[in-house]
# Entry
Amino acid sequence: MEKSGNVGDAAVPEADSKFDWCEYGAIADVVKDQADSVMTTDKSWIRVRNRNDPVFLNGLENFIETAKNHLDSEDKTYCPCKKCVNSHRHSLTVIKAHIHDKGFQQSYETWIYHGEELPNSPVVDALSGSRKRIVVPTQEMFDALDDVMAEQNTNEVNIDEDANDLDPEFDALFAEVNTELYPGCTWLSSLNFLAKMTHFKVINKWTDSSFSQVLEFLKFAFPKENHVPASYYEAKKKLRKIGLGYQSIDACVNDCVLFWKDNESKENCPVCNASRWVDPNTKGKKIAHKVMRYFPLTSRLRRRYGSRFTAKDMIWHNTGSSTNGMMRHPVDGKAWQEFDKRYPDFAKEPRNVRLGLAADGFNPFGIMSLSYKGIRMRDASTDTIFNMRAALLWTINGFPARSSLSGWSGQGYKACSTYKQDTPSIRASNKTVFIGHRRFLPSNHKWRFSLLFNGNKEKRKAPRRLNKEQILEQLNSLPVRIPGKHPDYGGAKRKRAESELNWTKRSIFFELDYWSTLELKHNLDVMHVEKNVCESLLGTLLMNDKSKDTNNARVDLKDMGIRKNLWLTPKKNKKEGVMAATDEADRKRFEEWKKKYNKAYKSPNEEEKRFSAFQENLRDVEEHLANKNLKSHWKGAE
# Structure
């Protein structure tokens, strides 16, 4: 079936063997002088700290010369800098700059992406017109398994030193790493194949069913003794140990409790007595009314530190803060810095984690527990064990979710969760509006003295911010409420007492000792803010259904006694409607500009063109509007 040739230790299938079914199985000749160069390449330069040292610079030049022989059709190859870690392809010019600026990935000792071979890993001929040779990297799966095993063994205290098998599932995975994809395929293991295929699934957004169909076809197309999984389900089972799963926890249909811990075995809710199951009398598998998927946080943080490729990124904030006074990361903000000042013991360990809870339109169950506590972790970048603590620094969400997370209602006259009962607001014709924004400006700001808005100067100070003691005093006066939606157990609607202000509940976050002291507890997702503001601004200019310049808005101005020139003019006992601030020609011009900009924006790799087009067209629109001196008009105005 096989014969040996002058290709080192690689076995080459005979021309008439069954392995000639596809060129992918062909093994290229291993050039002897290439193997000799691998043995003699000096790589000591990658550990030189001074990257302006001649030793480092000469080594970098030699590496670039080597990499020239391993470019793809776009003249790019993998970048081994400490940031890219061979996960991105760049031109040689960019790679050289990256390595000089960020350093060379020191764990990349065998340059498998740049022509060198691993032991017993033959060079494979890439199926391209240029017929360039590449090396299939089989070592990466060993690295991944090593990281995961080290991570999972961090907390082991009673390991039998004489035992050969620490974990049967890992033994099976290591066996897969050493198993040929099919007999004679010495360049690709079955686990490597599976990892690559699942990676392709993710980046190309394949559906589960389409992925199963691809696997089914490959299993049929490859030689019969192959180890291709028959479906996506089988593939997931093999990779489950490396991956991170979730835990399914049943919940009460009325959101009273989770069937977890003490309630795990109960068939009915201990609060409202509702059945846990859709059909409690079924003879088959019972289906819960509600299921919560719990993604454990500790294991995910442990994986971040347990991987040599991501561990170093976990402490970027300790060395990457801004030096020019500009804020480019939360570490440069006041909230982060105030937390560090208040809790120096937490801040002195850069590997401690500050968390942000992203809840975009998400309403979490009422029973949860968050605090910062110590967990033993292995830092793969330094190969040390440390006690990691985590703290929830803030939440990131839209306005409705903020109400649920903070416990302070976002409706009514006191909707602001920061200034609470001092929220500056009034009732307009059909809604509550928030005014007095000039109060938040510095006392000497010129807009405070402007008469353009309402004919008055703004001399009031900004509303007061409550301190920790004042917030806790309000919370402690709230009545105890049963969680859930059942009308007899916490779900009954009732009118809030005046003393409750806008509090709807005591948020679970206040169980954290430090929560009431945080400078910034809740962040509004900028996506929602900029979308709403942009739609309102453009809608008002174009007078579409998103416009805020409506008849009711003009009536509100009259009721407030401000901007008399914008009041509606009565005509024949009718209040005439508001006219557009722009005429049809203006709107058409704007639509043409928008199409032109969108077309430029969709062009790939033309960032500078897009920005120039945007600036040029924006100047045209601004100049056109300025020349016309456009103002709001209304019918019947003389």
Notes: Residues 527-628 form one domain. The mean pLDDT is 75. DSSP finds 18 helices and 17 strands in the chain. Residues 28 and 125 are 5 Å apart (CA to CA).
